[in-house]
Amino acid sequence: MHKNEKVLAFGLGITVLLGGCNMGTDNVKSTETETVAQAGEEQEISMNTENLVSVQDYNGEGYALRDGEETDKIAEGNREEIEVAVKKFFSEKYKTEVIVHNLVGAVDGVSVFVESVGEPHFHAFAIVPIDVKSKTIKTDAVWSQEGQVENALSGGLYAMAYEKEMATLDNFVNKIAKQYPVVGKTKEAVDKTDSGYSTPFYYLNFFTDVFDQLNSMYLENQNVSKEQLRSFLDENKFETEAVKITINLFMKESNIDPDRETYAKIVSEIESMEGLPRGAYTLLLHDNLIDSKYGSGSKNNSIEETTINEIMKE
């Protein structure tokens, strides 16, 4: 498996693939089994439906990883030290200045969610090991999951190379949100829970060595121009399927299921839209609720019609 393919296992850094959950009854506690990829490994956990909140109200607060209560406390007590170490890690390894948005305790460490400053723009996370027994922060051993930051960096560079097309995509999803009863995630939720090239309405993933080479161009020369990046991608033509562009939407109103008619209309809009960046498009439509603990809207009523996805844009 190519290293960037591993990123898709957790999508936006740590994506949750929720199992079925019954949303028909208010104020009733229930649990469902869900499969979640945390720290690069899939596991089944129980989801309490009390964690479900309106996507418009979700700002990333409450996001949690497995068995992270103790490390979470230690991390918050040493936040400044952790932030310095993580900023140094991204500066030295990825030649990129970042700001820290969120610290989330996990088993034997803390995941630190960051956003790059300027271009290339992306979200990512690094892991700082913590010895719970001695309450020691191992700031000299910061690391990142294989391919996770690389995938995010590729997204930032792709957006620079396809600047005009990405602006068209941004205008398109904003128009969709005005035209149809749908919304995206909040910017705060993206900042605190996402990894990759991610916006409130969509996220990107990459599956070819061409983007490893694109990353190398930047790591060797942080002043590489948008024109040089675009020229490289034009000369090293990648398969359309190598870029996955997932439009991730939620119903605007609460207490209703994702609407198939709305879904079909938006798909038609994507298919007919000219000037979008090159890639394979997928549309996800969820109800209005998002799991505040895991930052995902995917549930058994979410719509992703595989018969019409993916939509290819050359």
Word description of this protein:
By secondary structure, the chain is of the alpha+beta class. It is built from nine helices and 14 strands. It has helices at residues 3-8, 69-77, 79-94, 148-161, 163-179, 187-193, 209-220, 226-235, 260-272, and strands at residues 16-17, 31-38, 41-48, 52-54, 98-106, 109-116, 123-131, 136-137, 182-183, 202-206, 243-251, 279-286, 289-291, 311-313. The strands form four sheets. Strands 9, 10, 11, 12 and 14 form a five-stranded mixed β-sheet that branches. Strands 5-6-7-8 form a four-stranded antiparallel β-sheet, sandwiched between helices. β2 (31-38) and β3 form a beta hairpin. The protein is flat, with a radius of gyration of 19 Å.
In short:
With 314 residues, this protein is α+β, with helices and mostly antiparallel strands. The chain has helices at 3-8, 69-77, 79-94, 148-161, 163-179, 187-193, 209-220, 226-235, 260-272; strands spanning 16-17, 31-38, 41-48, 52-54, 98-106, 109-116, 123-131, 136-137, 182-183, 202-206, 243-251, 279-286, 289-291, 311-313.
As residue ranges, the low-confidence spans are 1-47
> In DSSP terms, counting alpha (H) and pi (I) runs of 4 or more, how many helices?
9
Shape: flat
Cα gyration radius (Å): 19 Å
Residues in helix, % = 25-40%
Biggest sheet overview? 5 strands, mixed
Helix-strand pattern: HEEEEHHEEEEHHEHEHHEHEEE
Summarize the topology.
Blueprint: H1 3-8, E1 16-17, E2 31-38, E3 41-48, E4 52-54, H2 69-77, H3 79-94, E5 98-106, E6 109-116, E7 123-131, E8 136-137, H4 148-161, H5 163-179, E9 182-183, H6 187-193, E10 202-206, H7 209-220, H8 226-235, E11 243-251, H9 260-272, E12 279-286, E13 289-291, E14 311-313
Parallel strand pairs: 11-12
Antiparallel strand pairs: 1-2, 2-3, 4-13, 5-6, 6-7, 7-8, 9-11, 10-11, 12-14
